[in-house]
Write a structure and sequence with these properties.
The chain has 204 residues and is an all-alpha fold. It contains 9 helices and no strands. The N and C termini lie far apart (105 Å).
């Protein structure tokens, strides 16, 4: 006797993957490619970068990579655009303490973060490529913005003269850090940070 048919129907499984599964797979591939790209930029800069090596390291096919990034330059730009220089804004109640918190954190990043090794390549190519100039400008804005904000706050609290040139002070605070990181290669320690703050905000 044939078995009785159940009143419940089994769901039909589609042979096509769900959009959620496809999206997560695409996201994993993108992450793998961008991670490999940034590793290569860290190791050899923009000049030593190749899509072939990205494909080998990420284990993502070149055809897939070029589907998302039509050119080598587009991939490099996308990877570089992931660099974030944003910092939390401190509010210690003192201008000097706020500046020290910002600059100490930046000094640490300059000496430990991978992006600090990639940035010289971005600066170099930014001289010739507008897209990289935009990325470099955004990174520099991220460095300067918290300093300008605490300086502006200090003016409102009468800790700093209203006639203070914030652009010049910001440059005086950031410039020495970059000089030691990429030119003199001297340590960027707390004593150095404290010295440049005093020179920048107490200069005659």
């Amino acid at each position: 006797m044939a078995p009785k048919a159940s009143g419940r129907q089994r769901p039909v499984r589609s042979s096509r993957p769900s959009s959620t599964w496809v999206d997560s797979r695409v996201e994993r591939s993108r992450h793998a490619v961008l991670t490999a790209t940034f590793e290569l930029l860290y190791e050899g800069g923009v000049g030593g970068f190749s899509v072939d090596e990205v494909a080998r390291r990420s284990r993502v096919a070149k055809t897939t990579i070029y589907r998302h990034w039509p050119t080598r330059e587009a991939l490099v730009i996308d990877a570089c655009s992931q660099i974030s220089a944003e910092q939390e804004l401190p509010d210690t109640g003192s201008l000097e303490s706020d500046l020290k918190a910002i600059l100490t954190n930046l000094a640490h990043q300059l000496q430990t973060a991978n992006w600090s090794s990639v940035l010289p390549s971005i600066i170099d190519i930014a001289e010739r490529e507008p897209e990289f100039a935009d990325i470099h400008s955004r990174i520099q804005h991220g460095h300067a913005a918290p300093l300008r904000e605490v300086l502006q706050r200090a003016i409102s609290k009468d800790e700093l003269s209203a006639s203070a040139d914030l652009s010049t002070i910001t440059a005086a605070l950031l410039g020495p850090l970059f000089y030691r990181r990429w030119f003199s290669r001297e340590p960027i320690d707390d004593q150095f940070v404290e010295t440049i703050i005093k020179l920048a905000i107490h200069a005659p």
